[in-house]
């Protein structure tokens, strides 16, 4: 890693004058010499000075190749302090700790080295996708950590000496959900989108019929940057919306804006390919030339008994069915997982019919709010909260936990039902029970040690509970509803 930050410009908030060398900088340890310097400082502080350890303070984290050491050095390269960050679990779930924060005697008290190292560790953790970041600190360091925004998480003992576990509040999923969905409640006040029982759902039942209507607009920057993929996504997101409602697809309407016919052809080529793959015919639409890139697609389906997202109740099991095939879409690493373009039509049909064949109490497909934010939308509509087990979430080998929980995953569907009731076979997808609905609001993340951290703190959209589902139009078809144990 190159230089992490210039503390004059970042941590202190004021850029250093041009040509003036900073008094000290913080970098990640680059070689064995750096690590040897850090080990020497640790021995001086924790073994010789504080006598917390006899002989050596080394532990398993020092032998973990994932461990990162940040070092503060003055302008001449002399070591002033250091701290390490290391993964807690064997498989990286995003649970990391900061430890062995040490500052030389000469640098203590007046330079802010310790404070800067803590801030640098927090910045590194957030950039690296850490979801739970903690430090076990001595009593004398607790006030500094508290001033920096850390929160106490309980007493601990290290080498027979009382310590305090401190936790850095990481709000990645809350920020994502707020950015994507928080304005909806005020904007849609009085409209009751979806109608009674389906407010905020992926599709809207058309009153007096068994029709389900869904509509999605693709982000204009994506249309401009990758028109063929945008066209494919226009079908994909609508197919998933119908699937979440347990609807059988009928067809699509599209509205395309393009600067010229050549660009429109690229968007439509993606639409055609996806419409064929998903067996969702394009029934009609509108095309406008000489305008900025834009794409909106409306889907129609049929369901005599639509599955709501607001049908969940405390005590029910949360299950995720996700297609783990594929890889990150080129140019969208960490944001968009492409599991669908290589799937056959029969595989896509098996995926998108899983809710209809299961008939769960509630369902919602994972959208741009990510897995955690989408589950927050389901719980909001259901008038309750959820606990999500981080280690139990199905995840592709090539995706980090933080990216997977916040990306658009191609096909991923939450279903909620009574404990022990399975989910119908979903073809190439992986299904796993990974949480539960509980009283309250928001989504909590449960870790292997049983601790809970905040995923989203409360309502995601502001639309509130969906209310009671209105009576179905007709009888639920017998069909292929044979829930399978997961």
UniProtKB/TrEMBL annotation:
User: One GO molecular-function annotation for this sequence?
Assistant: thiamine-phosphate kinase activity
For the biological process aspect of GO, one term held by this record is: thiamine biosynthetic process
Record's Gene3D superfamilies? 3.40.630.30, PurM-like C-terminal domain (3.90.650.10), PurM-like, N-terminal domain (3.30.1330.10)
InterPro entries recorded: Acyl_CoA_acyltransferase, GNAT_dom, MSMEG_0567/sll0787_C, MSMEG_0567_GNAT, PurM-like_C_dom, PurM-like_C_sf, PurM-like_N, PurM-like_N_sf
Give the source's domain of life in one word. Answer: Bacteria
**N-acetyltransferase domain span:** 18-171
Q: Which PANTHER family match?
A: THIAMINE-MONOPHOSPHATE KINASE (PTHR30270)
Specify the protein name.
Answer: N-acetyltransferase domain-containing protein
Q: Which organism is it from?
A: Frankia canadensis
Species classification? Bacteria, Bacillati, Actinomycetota, Actinomycetes, Frankiales
């Amino acid at each position: 890693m190159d230089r992490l930050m210039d503390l004059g410009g970042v941590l202190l908030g004021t850029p250093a004058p041009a040509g003036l060398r900073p008094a000290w900088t913080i970098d990640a340890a680059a070689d064995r010499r750096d690590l040897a310097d850090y080990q020497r400082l640790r021995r001086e502080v924790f073994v010789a000075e504080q006598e917390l350890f006899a002989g050596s303070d080394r532990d398993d984290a020092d032998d973990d190749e994932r461990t990162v050491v940040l070092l503060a050095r003055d302008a001449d390269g002399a070591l002033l302090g250091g701290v390490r960050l290391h993964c807690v679990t064997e498989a990286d779930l995003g649970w990391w700790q900061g430890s062995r924060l040490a500052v030389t005697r000469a640098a203590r008290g007046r330079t802010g080295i310790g404070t800067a190292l803590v801030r640098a560790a927090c910045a590194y953790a957030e950039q690296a996708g850490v979801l739970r970041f903690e430090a076990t600190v001595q009593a004398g360091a607790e006030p500094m950590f508290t001033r920096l925004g850390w929160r106490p998480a309980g007493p601990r003992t290290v080498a027979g000496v009382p310590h305090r576990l401190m936790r850095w509040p990481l709000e990645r999923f809350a920020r994502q959900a707020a950015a994507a969905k928080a304005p909806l409640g005020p904007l849609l006040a009085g409209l009751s989108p979806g109608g009674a029982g389906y407010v905020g759902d992926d599709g809207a039942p058309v009153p007096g019929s068994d029709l389900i209507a869904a509509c999605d607009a693709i982000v204009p920057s994506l249309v401009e940057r990758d028109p063929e993929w945008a066209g494919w996504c226009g079908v994909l997101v609508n197919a998933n919306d119908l699937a979440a409602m347990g609807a059988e697809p009928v067809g699509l309407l599209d509205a395309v804006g393009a600067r010229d016919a050549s660009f429109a052809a690229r968007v439509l080529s993606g639409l055609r390919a996806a419409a064929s793959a998903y067996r969702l015919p394009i029934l009609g639409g509108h095309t406008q030339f000489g305008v900025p890139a834009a794409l909106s697609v409306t889907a129609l389906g049929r369901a005599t008994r639509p599955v709501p997202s607001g049908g969940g109740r405390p005590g029910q099991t949360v299950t995720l069915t996700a297609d783990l095939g594929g890889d990150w879409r080129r140019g969208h690493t960490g944001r968009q997982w492409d599991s669908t373009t290589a799937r056959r039509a029969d595989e896509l049909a098996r995926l998108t019919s899983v809710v209809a064949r299961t008939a769960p109490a509630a369902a919602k497909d994972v959208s741009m709010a990510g897995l955690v934010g989408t589950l927050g939308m389901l719980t909001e509509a259901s008038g309750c909260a959820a606990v999500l087990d981080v280690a139990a979430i199905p995840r592709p080998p090539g995706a980090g936990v933080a990216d997977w929980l916040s990306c658009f995953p191609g096909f991923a569907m939450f279903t909620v039902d009574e404990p022990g009731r399975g989910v119908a076979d979903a073809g190439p997808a992986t299904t796993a029970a990974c949480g539960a609905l509980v009283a309250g609001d928001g989504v909590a993340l449960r870790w292997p040690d049983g601790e809970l951290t905040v995923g989203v703190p409360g309502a995601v959209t502001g639309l509130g509970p969906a209310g009671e589902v209105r009576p179905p139009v007709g009888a639920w078809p017998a069909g292929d509803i044979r829930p399978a144990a997961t």
